[in-house]
Design a protein that fits this description.
The complex is a heterodimer of chains A (387) and B (123). With 387 residues, chain A is an alpha+beta fold. Helix content of chain A is 48%, strand content 14%. Chain A folds into two domains: 89 residues, no CATH class; 279 residues, Orthogonal Bundle (Cytochrome-c3 Hydrogenase, chain B), CATH 1.10.645.10. Chain A is built from 15 helices and ten strands. The chains are: A alpha+beta (387), B alpha+beta (123). Chains A and B meet through helix 2, helix 5, helix 6 and helix 7 of A and helix 1 and helix 3 of B.
């Protein structure tokens, strides 16, 4: 069979970040997809090795602006595990609250963007209006509407008072009412139904074999969530449900996110009602002992993994981060196979892609067609760069 | 299938006032504890340099004035994380609600230290 190549990206109106997908087409149908990542590699892992553990909190928080709380949370948890450090219970609860607020805003952001991709701009406007309410709560708790700088080594940066708690609860109550309406829209509206039901099928077996994570694998009916499987922060003490849908299509993945917002609202209300008294942070040493630690959290997009090696001292020897989009990108290609060209943006957005977070660097020798990885030191020696 | 759910919502919104504000004629007051422009109270400063050491954006430089080193903040590099305030043993640095920091020159975005007069009380 002869196929036609259609190249989407790196710059493309349907993608908000640069990434390249080569679609092999048979008429209107996608036969195969070849992804090409690495356009916005920023070298954060290397930069983290050159900064102290305290400075790294803020650097790693900036891997992803949208799920910044998840990134800083997994980093501080990994460093605390490395040191064998217990944080105060109040800090664990506050981390949970801000992490869930972050999840709500991330899910609402995606659902709005999806509305825009459907050609349903009204949904986009309304969802983003109500998302602003969550941002206001984050602003009053952390001091900034997006980048929270809330998780620090040994606890959290600031405490919440009674007025902030009642403001957050009022906002959650209002948001629950609004989300009931949006759930109806996603479940019943003809535009959403026609554009997402049966689009981007990911069978449970392929979701497992491609190691999909987060709402993508839960949309294929597989019950896995780091918050339930390996509880961190205060999740061990808070009841919540792991949402799954079993229609395996893009619609299922959007509905997982809609329902997860309800669960997050429940978690926030539960945690704020039962906030333990006591200190919000304990003194964390500047120098971390030698060793190796591994940490994971459930970021809004799925399982987020950090691995840190310490040789003692105040800087990590190696920092490694696996973001959920990197795990989901192959699943996204599987979703596009067999679908039409017009369904590609919907399938792709259903994994909630965040390309800048997942980009990796590989060096390709164009003349020989070889692909290899190298250390910065070797590259500098080869190309004569000086520090 | 029925009528699209959004029609009634959109009709209701016609009678409501807009959600957005007419900035810059209307401004929202940031909440208490907002991380805006920094305020330095150098009368408490002990010239230790911890703020410059912990700054993740390398935005604080210790400059020498009158034989002692004082913090100079480059706000164009600052990421407003307030780690400097957390690291400071004497609470020299506090936040203000000033957030309109855009300018046409980077030199306007520098907070130069004005150390308290030698031997005098405080600024």
């Amino acid at each position: 069979m002869t196929t036609t190549d259609l190249i989407i990206g790196p710059q493309h109106p349907a993608l908000h970040e640069p990434e390249r997908f080569v679609l092999k087409l048979d008429g209107e149908y996608v036969v195969d997809v070849v992804p090409r990542i690495g356009y916005v590699h920023r070298g954060i892992e290397k930069a983290a090795e050159l900064r102290s553990y305290i400075q790294d909190v803020y650097l790693i928080e900036r891997i992803c602006g949208i799920c910044n709380v998840a990134h800083s949370l997994v980093y501080v948890q990994t460093v605390e595990a490395l040191q064998g450090f217990e944080i105060p219970p109040r800090a664990a609860y506050l981390r949970t609250v801000v992490h869930e607020l972050n999840r709500i805003h991330s899910h609402l952001l995606l659902l709005g963007v999806v509305g825009e991709l459907f050609g349903f701009d009204t949904l986009f406007m309304y969802l983003w209006r109500d998302r602003e309410l969550v941002m206001d709560v984050v602003e009053s708790i952390t001091g900034n509407r997006l980048i929270s700088a809330f998780n620090v080594l040994g606890g959290v940066a600031r405490d919440v008072g009674p007025s902030q708690i009642s403001e957050a609860k009022r906002a959650m109550e209002y948001l629950r009412r609004r989300m009931k309406f949006y759930k109806k829209v996603f479940a019943e509206d003809p535009t959403v139904e026609k554009r997402s039901k049966g689009v981007g099928i990911l069978k449970p077996s392929s979701a497992l074999s491609l190691c999909a994570v987060g709402p993508v694998i839960r949309g294929s009916g597989i019950k896995t969530d780091v918050r339930a499987d390996d509880p961190y922060a205060a999740y061990g003490e808070i009841p919540f449900n792991v949402i799954t849908y079993d229609t395996n299509d893009s619609w299922a993945r959007f509905m997982v996110r809609v329902d997860e917002v309800f669960e997050s609202i429940g978690i926030i209300e539960y945690a704020l009602d039962r906030l333990p008294d006591g200190p919000i942070r304990a003194r964390f040493p500047r120098r971390v002992r030698e060793g190796e630690a591994f940490g994971r959290v459930e970021a809004p997009r799925g399982e987020l993994v950090d691995h840190i090696i310490s040789k003692g001292g105040d800087k990590p020897y190696r920092f490694k981060c696996r973001t959920p989009t990197l795990a989901n990108i192959l699943a996204a290609c599987e979703m596009m196979r067999g679908g039409q060209i017009a369904d590609v943006p919907v399938s792709l957005s259903s994994i909630d892609p965040c390309f800048a977070c997942e980009d990796r660097l590989a060096i390709i020798d164009v003349s020989k067609g070889e692909r290899y990885s190298a250390r910065i030191r070797d590259l500098m020696a080869k190309y004569g760069a000086s520090r | 299938m029925g009528l699209p759910k959004f029609i009634s919502e959109a009709l209701r919104a016609v009678a409501r006032r807009p959600f957005t504000l007419m900035y810059p004629f209307e401004r929202r007051e940031p909440p208490e504890g907002y991380r805006g422009k920094q305020v330095f109270d150098l009368s408490k400063c002990i010239n230790c340099g911890l703020c410059a050491m912990d700054c993740p954006a390398f935005a604080i430089e210790m400059v020498e004035i009158g034989g002692k080193k004082w913090p100079k903040l480059y706000m164009d590099r600052c990421v407003f994380c307030y780690q400097c305030a957390a690291s400071c043993p004497k609470n020299v640095i506090s936040s203000s609600k000033l957030y309109e920091l855009a300018g046409t020159s980077r030199s306007n975005l520098v907070i130069s230290p004005e150390p308290p007069a030698m031997g005098g009380g405080g600024a």
